[in-house]
Amino acid sequence: MTARLLPGAPVADALLARVAGRVRVLAQVPRLALVRVGDDPASVSYVRSKDKKAREVGIDSEVHALPETTTQAELLALLARLNADPAVSGILVQLPLPAHIAEEPVLLAVDPAKDVDGFHPFNVAQMWAGHARLNPCTPAGILELLDFYGIPVAGQRAAVVGRSEIVGRPMAAMLLGRDATVTIAHSRTADLGAVTREADILVVAVGRPQFLTPDIVKPGATVIDVGINRIEVGGKGKIVGDLHPDVVQVAGGLTPVPGGVGLLTVAQLMANTVTAAELVQARG
Asked: What is the DSSP letter of 253?
């Protein structure tokens, strides 16, 4: 058996096409505020790509690039202004923040109605209750991928390896909301294979290169690799996921790295921004 590859590009393209259509019928063009503190190269790259993608689908985008010396009070003051600005539909604070700024108060300061990352406790509670409109982008993008490739979720056994608040926990909640039977596993799970071998859908988000080996994958399972790890091979840098390459010989379908889930995260961010704008318009 050789797994069917499940690339993210066609899924992201289809989602972005729908987003662009939704933008065109709104009375006011949505605006996404992207906030970055400092010049971390990865953060600069991520914000640039989000800004570019927003403009491609017709969303106004404004980048607030703050210096490394920005204080917590100054950042919170900016967020208060963005919360109060009726032209701003969504706010994203790029993580990580510099060490002198505490993340939790910053994330709490974003208006839940503009929290397009889906990280505010109000939106997290709504997600677990099954009522969320603004879900975390990576798990929401994974559901888009499963739907696009016709992979059933209801009634399936699903395992999520990783318990982060960004991917693992919300992924479990969203799969449960789609009527899967869900188990969360992590670095301290005893006998990880006993969990993963039962999974029809296996989402791996542990941040360890080539961590999941083929001997603990159920034959024919759909495996979603969320990992983005940089390793050195022959003196050159290479990006790999959390799956061992030989998983392709066991799984029924899997996402490539790169070219898989990462593309869906940005696309879902655009979808969340339009959803936030639609909710404001519906309230009048």
From this structure: E
Tokens of 259: 């070219």
CA distance 46 to 227: 16
> Does 50 qualify as catalytic in the annotation?
yes
Least confident of 1-5, 99-103, 170-174: 1-5
Q: What is d(CA 216, CA 196) in angstroms, rounded to the nearest whole number? A: 6
**Kind plus residue range of the DSSP H or E element containing 93:** strand 90-93
DSSP conformation letters of 11-41: HHHHHHHHHHHHHHTSSS--EEEEEEES--H
- pTM exceeds 0.70, yes or no: yes
Q: Show the 3-state SS of 199-238.
A: CCEEEECCCCCCCECHHHCCCCCEEEECCCEEEEECCEEE
85 carries an active-site annotation:
no
Q: Identify the three-state secondary structure at position 5.
A: strand
Contacts 24+ apart (CB under 8 A), 164-168: 164/205, 165/119, 165/124, 166/119, 166/136, 166/138, 167/136, 167/138, 167/139, 167/203, 167/205, 167/226, 168/203, 168/205
pLDDT digits (tens, 9 = 90+) for 217-240: 999 999 999 999 888 888 888 899
- Annotated catalytic residue: which of 53, 115, 117, 225? 117
User: Per-residue b/e over 188-213, b at no fewer than 16 CB within 10 Å?
Assistant: ebeebeebbbebbbbbbbbeebbbbb
Q: Catalytic pick from 53, 94, 225, 268? A: 94
- Residue 221 tokens read as 């399972």
Q: Is 268 a catalytic residue?
A: no
